[in-house]
Amino acid sequence: MSRVAACSVLCDFLANAGDCAHSLGAMKKNNDPWLCGRETRRSSACTILYLSLLFSCAAATSEEGREEGNQWRLCPQQRHVPARPEYSETSTDPGSIEIRSDTSRITESGLSQFSGEVEIIKGEQSLSAELANYHQDTGLFDAEGRAHLWNPSITWSGESIRYDSETGVSDLVGGQYWLSNGLGRGHAALINHDRGADTTTLRDVDYSTCPLSDEVWRLTAGKLVLNHATDRGSATNAVLRVRDLPVFYLPYVNFPISNKRKSGFLAPTAGTTEESGMDVRIPYYWNIAPQQDATLTPRHLEKRGTMLDSEYRYLGEQFAGVARAEYLPGDDLKGGDDRYLFHLDHSQHFFNRTSRMRGWFSIDYSDVSDKSYLEDFGSGIGATSRNFLDQEATFRLLDYTPSGGTNLVSARIRAWEITNPSLKSNSKPYSILPQIDYLNSTPLGRGFSALTTLQTTYFDHSSRVTGGRVVLEPAIRYSFVKPYAVVMPELTFHHTQYFLDDPAETFDDNESRTAAKFSLDSRLYFERTISLFGSAFVQTLEPRLYYLLVPNVDQDAIPNFDSGLYNPGFNTLFRENRFSGWDRLGDANRLTLGMTSSILDPEDGREVSRFNFGQIYYFRDRKVTLPGKSEITDRVSELIAEGTLNFTYAWSLRGALQWDPNESRTEKSAASLRFNPAASTVFNFGYHFRRTPDVIEQTDASFRVPLTPALAAVGSWSYSLTDSRNLEALGGLEYESCCWGLRVVGRRFLRNTEGDFDKGVFIQFHLRGLGGIGQSADSLLRRGIRGYEDPFD
Fold first, then answer.
1. What is the reported pLDDT for 409?
2. Please, what sign has the CA dihedral across residues 585, 586, 587, 592?
3. Is residue 637 within 8 Å of residue 619, measured between CB atoms?
4. Residue ranges of E strands in 619-710
5. Helix (H, G, I), strand (E, B), or coil: what is residue 12?
6. Strand pairing of 526-532 and 512-524?
7. Model confidence over 60-117: pLDDT tens digits?
8. In sequence order, which residues have a C-beta less than 8 Å from that of residue 385 and are 6 or more positions away?
9. How many CA atoms lie within 13 A of 173 on its CB side?
10. Alpha carbon distance, N-terminus to C-terminus of the chain
11. b/e map 150-178, b = 16+ CB within 10 Å
């Protein structure tokens, strides 16, 4: 047999191992559980990679691919193998095979032999051994004596390599392996790959991401069988050991070995709260179809009973959604009442991107069994303090006309569910059944454009006046736009017609309102170079003038379905109506003066500072008010000031002030300071004050501060200065090494508006390369600590 023939046999073996690089790349690139898995065959060498995914595969879900920026968190590889052999010439074709050895004996039949520092290179794959033999008669190839195998995904070092070219069976005997992406290492007594059956069997396998000098944890399996034809694997006697102590045992587990999801149990979680006691969850993942899945979670609450939490996800080319349901039969703390929650979030779009039409449809629907449900089962002050759940469906259709105009048609229905036990049923907002909007913009040439707004709404309520409302607003706008200035005058005709049903006869069934509006919005843009602390910066100055004229129209005989006052802010100074909704059209003869100024770093465009100032000057009293309110006679509005100052990339300061010159007092103020020099360190401090309708004054602080290179303290705290009490306190420790981590977090939070508190403890043990065990608190930390980054991601 010729030397070239012998090399082709070696190439066949290396080609199988080479498939591993493509498999890993596809696995890392397409690990999103929503994406369909690729049909990718894996080689014998590549099968070791699945050990790192053993628990997560058994859980039927894959973790996110690790970003290169996080590789520093992994333990340094301790490889006792020589450097990978390279081609003798850098210009060698990667498809070529190069064999180097001290001696060689090549025959046409029988045994061909290479000995003495044998090195075989093909592309990115290399093999070395002291002796390599090829048996021409049997088609058997073997290499032994300090045998090593390199490819882009794995480095292997062992006793011997054997490959039968007739049967397609290969064996790697008694070796160690190191994953090239830094995610782990281990041993395998035998790796057997049957090319004909397309299966791989591994025996006496272990895996860890810890260094040999400090192996905190290790995963072992007696036997691991991977079927590449079905993309399924099975393992027997899988044991997780911590300091050689077995802590988790799986006698048998079946799991996917590709991106394809597989049904199975997820890692259980446990926690405790003062109100409900121990809280244990055992999720089961159901892989229904490539673009559908569900998670069923039996949840046992010590003081309440056992509930079922289910989530169904689906995805299509033009739609996606999530449906969730929770059901607790016979809550022991509620006298045996059944408790439930249902939530549906669906979104869909129509037409392709080449069409001038755009269409959207969405549903956001939530329902609970009783007003206390979120208080008892919700997490976080944001969930437990909600007054209403939204029940809404919306449809929008947008058309871009050939002349450059737009037509927008939308329709929606909306209702509410009370989730605050202290609220009465008649406190719910009006239901919208339905609301239809039409908006049109048509360019007329020479800077002019015609605008049309048409809205029709029907309002429904169980204990108040109901009826329909039609709003029509045609307008003419002129736009003067230059790099240094923008001037836009606009004239609008407004008409509102009501069709009411009022059994109490408080309102006329056919009320109407008509008015004309005029506005003039203008801005100037200035820019200059300035010097600060010896460095050059760019300063911008944008003065803005906004004039609004709206006549006073008596609206006391009109019901209020959806109008309210906007919260004062810089942007609200330039609104044409100080009321939300259409039931109140604010009378106005006023001028708004505003100023925005920024300082920019010309080298990288960073905004060093930004300040907004604004105030309204009134030329007459405002007689239109909300029901029960008096007319407003102040000649000036509150002075609004907002600012951001970024001292460095690490330090930033934000502030806002609302000053009432008529009362000579502060109505609202806020300030926040943030120090974020690195991803591992963040400190926030905030102060908030609001005078109306009730005085609220509170502070909050949050932090993540490293105490040692491996240990960090985390915490957040909200305190009401008005009531002299804590609103929420959270604190704990995070330990992070290169192969494992531990997080312990305690939390005390306000459950409801009645002042009741609850407590909780969260413990999570994280193994790099495997995943986490315990109840995660990362969502609480992200919400409570602005700028927090989870070190276990």
1. 97
2. negative
3. no
4. 639-645, 651-660, 665-678, 681-690, 696-706
5. helix
6. unpaired
7. 332 333 333 344 456 766 666 778 889 998 888 887 878 899 998 888 778 888 898 8
8. 420, 750, 752, 753
9. 12
10. 54
11. bbbbbbbbbebbbbbbeebbbbbbebbbb
At CA 318, angle to CA 315 and CA 321, rounded to 5? 40
Q: Is the dihedral of CA 636, 638, 640, 641 positive or negative?
A: positive
Beta bridge partners, 717, equal 701, 729
Between CA 774 and CA 793 the distance in angstroms is: 15
Distance CA 134, CA 9 (A): 8
Q: Check: CB of residue 146 under 8 Å from CB of residue 131.
A: no
Is a pLDDT exceeding 90 seen at residue 225?
A: no
| Interatomic CA distance for residues 478 and 487, integer angstroms | 8
SS3 content of the chain, % helix, strand, coil (to 5): 10, 55, 35
Percent of the chain with pLDDT over 90: 47
Question: What sign has the CA pseudo-torsion 175, 178, 179, 180?
Answer: negative
pLDDT digits (tens, 9 = 90+) for 250-300: 787 766 555 567 777 776 777 777 788 888 888 888 989 989 999 999 999
Strands 125-135, 607-618: pairing is unpaired
CA 454 and chain centroid, separation: 37
* Run of H or E including 29: helix 3-29
For the chain, domain boundaries? 3-262
Distance CA 225, CA 236 (A): 9
Q: What region does 787 belong to: left with phi over 0, alpha with psi -120 to 50, or beta?
A: left
Q: Residue 549: beta bridge partners?
A: 518, 589
Q: How confident is the model at residue 754 (pLDDT cuts 50, 70, 90)?
A: low
CA distance 674 to 671: 10
pTM assigned to the model: 0.74
Question: 756 is written with which tokens?
Answer: 């009741």
Q: Which fold would CATH assign to domain 3-262? A: lipopolysaccharide transport protein A fold (2.60.450)
Q: What is the pLDDT of residue 73?
A: 59
Distance CA 454, CA 580 (A): 16
